[in-house]
Amino acid sequence: MAPDTVSLRYFLVLAQELNFTRAAARIGIAQPALSARIRRLEADLGTPLLVRNTRSVALTPAGAALAESAPPALAALDRAWDTARSAAAGERGTLRIGYSLSTGAETAPALVDRLMRSSPALEVRAAPMATPEITPAVADGRLDAGITRGEQPGRGVRRFLLRRMRVGVQLAQHHPLAGHPEIEITDAAAYPLRLPDRTANPVVHDQLSALFRDTRPHAQLHTPALSVDMSQRDLRDGVTLAPAGEAAATAQPAGLTWRPLRGAPGLTIHLVLPREPSPLHRRVRTVAKALAHELHWLPD
């Protein structure tokens, strides 16, 4: 029968001190309790570990062998316990995250970085996905978590508000409206407005287009032929404005800037998790909540 680890740890202290009084004081127990522990340990092993007399304590050959072999065994056991505890806390394993392209400039990288730094044993695999595909993938277990702009429809998941952002427009730095700290919705509607393809994110597309539904004259809304226009020539030339959340202000291409729209309702970013959470999912939720508070993503 394997000895209990507490008695084994006590024995190792005694093997270093070779004195019951000093060893008991170092451990923080009474000397009779230490003596009782060592006798039980010897009984479990079926052999003496110490040679005792009134003036000294010495290790037997079995005691010396145990004193040499026990520390690495206990260290391995400690690692096993730590591994089990970290897995139970959601700090170990593989975390699969899908995020919408619009959250990839700032929000998703910040959360992924915090998860990796707070849980070094956690392998995080994050990839951009089409927004409508994220919630179903979380619901059926292909993803552990999702980050979406807008509260996307779908069952079998729980959604947590991660970030609330002001709505504004991207525009050329030389554009006449760029000199305003805030832009009136009616002023922005006087220019052609470029929206992303609705199929990429129907929720946000409809929310943005609704801002200009009642303007007079009616706003000119159009979608570029390319879903991701790397040149953004129409914006750079000052011809077009592009409604966008304030995250766009932190990753502006050269020649462009961002200004908020006065009175516009905010856009939201949500963390999507399975309805039945595991320790891993709870860990993601805890880290995301702390990050949102720290970076002031959610107004008080």
TrEMBL record:
Write down the Pfam families for this protein, in alphabetical order. HTH_1, LysR_substrate
- Domain HTH lysR-type, by residue range, is 3-60
For whether the record's keyword set contains Transcription, the answer is yes
Which keywords belong to this entry?
DNA-binding, Transcription, Transcription regulation
Q: Which Gene3D superfamilies match?
A: Periplasmic binding protein-like II, Winged helix-like DNA-binding domain superfamily/Winged helix DNA-binding domain
The UniProt record lists the keyword Transcription: yes
Family designation: Belongs to the LysR transcriptional regulatory family.
Which named protein is this? LysR family transcriptional regulator
Q: Which organism is it from?
A: Nonomuraea composti
